[in-house]
Amino acid sequence: MMCKAMSLCIAYSSTIGGLTTITGTSTNLIFAEHFNTRYPNSTEINFGTWFLLCIPITVILMILSWMWLQWLFFGFNFKEMFKCGKEKTDREKASAKVIKDEYEKLGSFSYQEIVTLILFILMALLWFTRDPGFIPGWASLFPKYLGYATDSTAALLLGLMFFIIPAYPWTKTTTKKSNSINYAPLITWKEFQACMPWDICILVGGGFALAEGCEVSGLSQWIANKMTPLGSLPIWIIVLVSCLIVTTVTEVASNPATITIFLPILAPLAEAIRVNPLYILIPTTLCTSFAFLLPVANPSNAIVYSYGHLQVIDMVKAGLGINIFGVLIVMLAISTWAVPMFRLDTYPLWANSTTP
Fold first, then answer.
1. What's the confidence (pLDDT) of residue 174?
2. Cα separation of 77 and 37, whole Å?
3. 14, 69, 56: which is closest to 321 by C-alpha?
4. Cα separations (Å) of 193 from 16, 21, 187?
5. Coil, strand, or helix at residue 21?
6. Beta partners for 173?
7. CB–CB of 332/25 below 8 Å?
8. Is position 344 within any domain?
9. What pLDDT score does 173 carry?
10. How many angstroms separate the CA atoms of 119 and 126, rounded?
């Protein structure tokens, strides 16, 4: 039971944590690219606003997921679990010893780890401060090049630093004939080529191409027009149905493929029924990541399943509850704190000027 619970915790927490930022999952990136391309006059979606929207969702869903898995595999005795001064069982002592031993094996921070941590923090700060919304960001320092400074700018700049910063403190080698400095970057191009997940780049790029094909061919607009009668329904029902559909589809199709198919359909639908597109697109994007039921639904699910501790029925029982929690929390968010953040109760002017 412990192995099953821990395996599912690792798989689910990696997925839930990815919801928090635009760069956390490929589906978030695809949504941001599609939205900013279709609505170039909109400034609502950026790293800061997405983080403020999703951090409560992530925290609530993480807590509920822990409670669900705890109850499902071990039972949930609140008084016993949080009792102070109780004696640890042999299993708890053994678990604590394993964790302590593994932690000690890590040793102290190395020079490379410290530099990587600093660069990561700098990149996160640049993402947050590029265009926070409530104050001018650093992108406003370049008025002649408005629109050119994006989240990709910070990522490429800090990524380039890995090829420049030395992996070890410089040392000087002196011989009778010459003096030389021993220099090696944190990452070499050969290492980058070997470790870079090119398959993900091709998958996401293919998703963009598929979305563009749906737009240019008129397929997405045709489907949206056929769905226009849904406008007579309350908006929360439309959002709920969209969330349930993508949550179901993403269990058998990849997340990028699912979001790529539905975004070009739902955006014209929102325009046709005169609803803020974000009201439908944000919850749909978030629910696309709720692939918790099957090993094939998500790479993290497949990885933990490959270790042999889980059966498919274990993932189905655990994932069904988390799927339900996820959809309900997203519906709560989009109906409460997301409304003033993105002015979801009004139809924005930027929705009238779209790029096909």
1. 58
2. 50
3. 69
4. 29, 26, 10
5. coil
6. 180
7. no
8. yes
9. 61
10. 10
Read off φ and ψ for residue 78, nearest 5 degrees: -60, -45
Residue 174, beta-bridge partner list: 179
pTM: 0.80
Structural tokens at position 225: 């027009």
273's tokens:
């029924």
C-alpha distances in angstroms, 308 versus 7, 116, 125, 256, 349? 10, 33, 40, 27, 53
Give the tens place of pLDDT for each residue, 7-55.
Answer: 888 889 999 999 998 888 888 988 988 898 889 888 888 888 899 999 9
Distances (CA, A) of 347 to 174, 226, 279, 335: 70, 21, 10, 15
> Residue 206's domain spans which residues?
2-76+101-352
61 alpha-carbon distance from chain centroid: 14
Residue 91 lies in a domain: no
Q: Is the pLDDT of residue 265 over 90?
A: no
User: How many separate domains does the chain show?
Assistant: 1
Tokens representing 192 are 């980058």
Residue 325 has pLDDT above 90, yes or no: yes
Provide the token pair at 80: 């016993």
Residue 113 CB partners (closer than 8 Å, separation 6+): none
Select from 259, 271, 229 the least CA-distant residue to 355. 271
- Kind of pairing between the strands at 179-182 and 171-174: antiparallel
Residue 10: inside a domain: yes
Q: Using the predicted structure, report yes or no on whether residue 269 has a pLDDT greater than 70.
A: yes
What are phi and psi for residue 276, nearest 5 degrees? Answer: -50, 120
8 A C-beta contact, residue 295 and residue 342: no
The tokens describing 125, both together, are: 């700060």
Establish if 30 belongs to a structural domain: yes
